[in-house]
Amino acid sequence: FKRLPAEQMNDLRRIAEAPMPEPDPNDNLTKQRETQEACAKILKYLEDPHDSAVLHVHDGSLKTDWINIAQSAGELLSTRRFGLVSATVPRTMAATLGVTEAPFIDVGHPFDYSRAFIGFSAYGGDYKSAQHDSNFEQRYREVLDLIQRSKGGALLLFSSFRDLERVAERVRADVKGMTILEQGRDMEAGERDALADKFVADGNAILLGRATFATGFDCPGWGLRCVIVWKLPYPAADPVQRAIMNSNQMRYNDAMKVSAVQAIGRLIRTESDSGVVWVADARGRRLLDPNDPL
After folding, report:
1. I need a surface site. Which of 27, 82, 86, 256 has the fewest CB within 10 A?
2. Verdict on whether the full-model pTM lies above 0.70
3. What is the torsion angle, in degrees rounded to the nearest 10, for the CA atoms of residue 121, residue 124, residue 128 and residue 129?
4. What is the greatest pairwise CA distance in the chain?
5. Between residues 118 and 180, which one has the greater pLDDT?
6. Residue 156 and residue 146: Cα distance in Å, rounded?
């Protein structure tokens, strides 16, 4: 929230504090009352911006979402012992929680990423438009070559169904003799599980899926030997994520990196797994470490 000029603050205050009659189910003041409540909520955060929040309209209602709780969290956590344990704790987590002095300890992991080749698209096209024809065509040709070289055993991960469906249509036309499995828009959890089971049982299939297959999906061994990330998995550009991006680009990038690492991690599930990870997005060259993404 940014403080408004005094005149506009006074206008908000007058609306928020104006006397209103008692609620009556038969009156016509519902919209006026809702407006007054909205002004009071806005005024509260403008006058006392303890932490940072974004106020936005969601499904026709005014909603508040916190985007920075560093002050409140720091006051709480600095008075007690605490620890966060995860394979994907972002570097910006300490600052986000207001405990910048907290030690960050990397204990390593048992996986040998020298057994996996991690590569990135050579095409640095128009990433502001995911559907740009030259962008799509070049990246698709790279992906198709990988699928054919690996002879299946490929998991293709997408950030949107639009991209997934477009690539799936081309793969079905260009790839013969392999089982092609595609996550549908309306699939329930049980249907997704059945799709995963088919992939594991086949051993040479191609599975095109969204974020649900980037976490919690296990296919150790040769059945999964090629993981392809079509596009860096940045959070959806809703009002909350746009506010985070505008206030802290590093934190926004970290959210993407956590999702990317989870996707890449589908390949190496045991100490003996090996294969190829391909990020079909040239931005990955400067944002991800190919030697050890974890």
Report:
1. 86
2. yes
3. -70
4. 74
5. 180
6. 11
**Of residues 182, 126, 132, the one with CA closest to residue 154:** 182
Count CB neighbours of 58 within 10 A.
12
Cα 262 to its chain centre, rounded Å, is 11
* Joined tokens for residue 287: 């944002």
Residue (of 235, 260, 261, 259) closest to 248 by Cα position: 235
Burial 97-112 (b: 16+ CB within 10 A, else e): bbbeebeeeeeeeebe
Q: Which residue, 236, 182, 233, is CA-closest to 205?
A: 182
- Which 8-state DSSP code applies to residue 152? S
Task: Name, in order, each residue with C-beta under 8 angstroms of 48's C-beta and a sequence gap of 6 or more.
Answer: none
Residues pairing with 229 in the sheet:
157, 279
Residue 66, helix vs strand vs coil: strand
Rounded Cα–Cα distance for residues 203 and 187 (Å):
22
The pLDDT tens digits for 56-115 are 777 766 677 888 888 889 989 988 888 888 877 888 888 999 999 888 888 877 777 677
Q: What is the signed CA dihedral for 181, 183, 184, 188, rounded to 10 degrees?
A: 120
Q: How far apart are CA 287 and CA 158, in angstroms?
A: 18
**In whole angstroms, what is the distance from residue 256 CA to residue 254 CA?**
5
Bridge partners of residue 180, in order along the sequence: 206
- Residue whose entry in the numeric block shows the structure tokens 């704790």: 89
